[in-house]
Design brief:
TIM Barrel; alpha/beta; eight-stranded parallel beta sheet; 484 residues; five-stranded antiparallel beta sheet
Length: 484
């Protein structure tokens, strides 16, 4: 809608859509066929002016002209997407094209959102997407600059999984720099209600759960998540927080089998609450969303893998859309660039791999992301709509890569170096984290002596010699022959 001198009139027709925690009203201009809903405002933002005051601003294309000529600001919980008729506003003002409110900051409002609405036919109609505080770092008491980090690190040493209400004391006692926040489901409070409802279901689901979606849909869950993350954020060593593991995969983030839009929305709620808890304590911490290797495979409803995962590319698009419209923040991406398949290390020669031609095509065509084609991810993150609030490409870490030893010590060692070379060649990769000590019947990433020597050389004066050796073994003169 363009700005006009004539006030728009809201029709009385109201359609109610039942969602998980709220009923969302949608108002329709009966005479013009227009919809007045959260998309009405041209822009909206909620930011801290200081430690005691929240500023809410919005720009309207025209005056919506509600029942009483007033605009109302409501406070909503993360799981609320509409305002009940009985809700009490936190502020109000006469209708204006340039909207500005200042309200007191409270700790509870660090995790709630502010929604602008008008009254129409007895309903409170949101006319802008509700906004979270988008600069929680202003509250931080820990503002020490980030340490100079090694480009490569190792799971189990610099990195560990943080199981909420499970091992926080161990994490705080360690010297970890990166944690991945997980939920075993053992604590009902931190488990999303969708997941909780099906946790002990006898129904047959396509993917058995290993970990569960975090709960930012009720006050108990929010308190449980934030209280522990705030303590962790004050740790002298912790700088990177990954919220969930491979969150485009339901195996690691079990939730009742709902549509993917609802799934992403629930994850975005948990991410936002976690982000604000962390950044309000440590201004320089980085918070990452984690995706797996599936990049552009587009499983449709009815496909046997539809409920198992969604593409990393599609997940990031949906996640970014939700986060951006509710107040853009500086999230980053943690990705796992294993070889394809992860049971085969000799990526430059797929002749010994079962279905090797198909696997190679998955990488070459961009359906899967490995260390070979990292530019797929970082090129996507350079799109204007994917940039950070400051206009920069988002931080990227490769938070898990393991190279199997089943094809021999030379192959494992050369591929460990190749993955490192791929990460170093890409200017948007901040760090690569290796999984060096994992073993199960089909996947064994434990290092041979030679592989350990190569790993130890990374980032040292011995790196150049290993570089030459790895290229010679692979049979190339330049890494661009096998990495792109």
């Amino acid at each position: 809608m363009g700005v006009t001198k004539t006030r728009a009139h809201i029709g009385k027709a109201v359609m109610l859509l039942l969602v998980m925690f709220a009923i969302i009203p949608v108002n329709v201009y009966a005479s013009e066929g227009k919809v007045l809903d959260e998309t009405f405002a041209a822009s909206a933002a909620s930011r801290l002016l200081n430690r005691t005051t929240i500023s809410y601003t919005a720009v309207l294309p025209e005056l919506p002209f509600g029942d009483d000529g007033m605009l109302y600001l409501f406070e909503l919980q993360p799981g609320e997407y509409a305002v009940s008729p009985m809700a009490v506003p936190v502020a109000s003002a006469p209708e204006s094209l340039m909207v500005s409110f200042a309200i007191p900051y409270t700790e509870a409002r660090l995790y709630t959102k502010l929604g602008l609405a008008v009254k129409s036919g007895g309903q409170n109609i949101l006319i802008a997407y509700p906004q979270y505080i988008s600069n929680p770092e202003l509250l931080a008491i820990y503002t020490k600059p980030r340490a100079v980090r090694a480009f490569k690190s190792e799971q189990g040493k610099e990195f560990c999984n943080l199981n909420l209400s499970g091992n926080i004391s161990g994490v705080l006692a360690g010297s970890y720099t990166t944690v991945q926040v997980m939920n075993t489901g053992s604590d009902q409070r931190v488990t999303n209600p969708y997941a909780r409802a099906g946790m002990h279901s006898a129904d047959s689901h396509p993917v058995p759960p290993r970990y569960y979606m975090l709960n930012a849909s009720d006050s108990e869950g929010i308190e449980a998540i934030t209280s522990e993350l705030k303590l962790c954020a004050l740790s002298a060593t912790l700088e990177n927080f990954i919220i969930g593991n491979e969150v485009n995969m339901r195996t690691w983030n079990y939730m009742m089998w709902t549509d993917w839009d609802s799934y992403v929305r629930e994850y975005a709620q948990a991410f936002r609450v976690s982000y604000n808890a962390i950044k309000s304590q440590n201004a320089n911490a980085r918070v990452f969303v984690c995706i797996d290797q599936n990049w552009d495979r587009n499983r449709r409803a009815g496909h046997r893998e539809y409920y198992e995962y969604m593409d990393g590319k599609d997940f990031l698009a949906k996640f970014n859309e939700v986060i951006s419209r509710e107040g853009n923040i500086d999230w980053g991406v943690a990705q796992h660039p294993y070889p394809v398949p992860l049971t085969y290390a000799k990526f430059w020669d797929m002749s010994g791999c079962r279905n090797g031609t198909y696997m190679a095509e998955q990488v070459a065509s961009g359906k899967m992301v490995s260390f070979q084609n990292l530019s797929l991810l970082t090129d996507y993150l350079q799109r204007p709509e994917m940039l950070s609030p400051t206009g920069n490409v988002r931080h990227v870490i490769l938070s898990e890569i393991g190279i199997v030893n089943s094809q021999g010590a030379d192959i494992q060692a050369a591929t460990i170096y190749a993955a490192y070379a791929a990460a170093k060649r890409n200017p948007y990769i901040d760090e690569i984290i290796y999984l060096l000590a994992y073993s199960e019947p089909t996947i064994d990433t434990r290092l041979s002596g030679q592989s350990q020597a190569v790993y130890d050389s990374l980032g040292t004066q011995n790196e150049a010699a290993c570089d030459a050796w790895a290229k010679s073994l692979i049979g190339i003169s330049d890494w661009s022959q096998v990495l792109w």
